[in-house]
From TrEMBL:
<comment type="similarity">
    <text>Belongs to the thioredoxin family. DsbA subfamily.</text>
</comment>
<keyword id="KW-1133">Transmembrane helix</keyword>
<dbReference type="InterPro" id="IPR012336">
    <property type="entry name" value="Thioredoxin-like_fold"/>
</dbReference>
<dbReference type="GO" id="GO:0016491">
    <property type="term" value="F:oxidoreductase activity"/>
</dbReference>
<keyword id="KW-0560">Oxidoreductase</keyword>
<feature type="domain" description="Thioredoxin">
    <location>
        <begin position="36"/>
        <end position="249"/>
    </location>
</feature>
<feature type="compositionally biased region" description="Low complexity">
    <location>
        <begin position="47"/>
        <end position="61"/>
    </location>
</feature>
<keyword id="KW-0472">Membrane</keyword>
<feature type="region of interest" description="Disordered">
    <location>
        <begin position="39"/>
        <end position="64"/>
    </location>
</feature>
<keyword id="KW-0812">Transmembrane</keyword>
<keyword id="KW-0732">Signal</keyword>
<dbReference type="Pfam" id="PF13462">
    <property type="entry name" value="Thioredoxin_4"/>
</dbReference>
<feature type="transmembrane region" description="Helical">
    <location>
        <begin position="12"/>
        <end position="33"/>
    </location>
</feature>
<keyword id="KW-1015">Disulfide bond</keyword>
<dbReference type="InterPro" id="IPR036249">
    <property type="entry name" value="Thioredoxin-like_sf"/>
</dbReference>
<dbReference type="InterPro" id="IPR013766">
    <property type="entry name" value="Thioredoxin_domain"/>
</dbReference>
<keyword id="KW-0676">Redox-active center</keyword>
Amino acid sequence: MTDIPQPDRRKRLLVPIVVTVVAALVALLAGLGPKLAGGSEQPAPGAPGSTGTSDTTAGSSEQDEQIAALASLARRTPGDPVALGKEDAPVVLVNYSEFQCPFCGKFARDTKPTLVKEYVDKGILRIEWRDFPYLGPESGTAAHAGRAAAEQGKFWEFHDAMFADQQPPNSGKLTEDYLAGVAARIGLDVAKFRKDLADPKLQAKVDQDFTEGQNIGVTGTPAFLVNGNPVIGAQPTETFTRLIEAEAAKAAAAK
């Protein structure tokens, strides 16, 4: 039997808090669809990640507590191969994503490069990937393949290659042979990659991410937390830059 990594005590204590938080977040994100559903819809005014304001939500202590609870999901794990940026960056973007999702591909191609250049490379932002393979069996296979690439320190190269030539959802193309071809193109040891595709410990990491997302109400991808502030769908790059800069300013003011 595979030993599934257990969350630390802080995370275990957080789960009931987050479950309670979900109901309030649903209300805050009512204009976005069910729970933290992915897609391209714009945030409702006053929702975390939007550019509007709301007298009933802005600055409320309850909302602050909700955002703080979600912000604590940032792992900041040293040497995490599925994270980009400094462990002590003032802003953490947690990205619940999957390789078959067209909107995830749009974010990866259109927005991530700008965020890396303008914020990750300057030590302001850390991006943490979370697997949320909800679209079907091929999603699960691709997520496991990403973890296999991470074992060789090339998760982000695999990530970029998968989204650069993204296949249609549930096309039947994301086979082990196809994924091994991607691994070969980015310079991985293909024999090790294929072996790691059968490693239950890597599958457990995927499962842990998926469960975490479900626990906070994620139902689709992409879904993001920027220092705990939800941003739903492949929003314009400016939506992310405004929120990152605001959170960075708050962190600087708090020092």
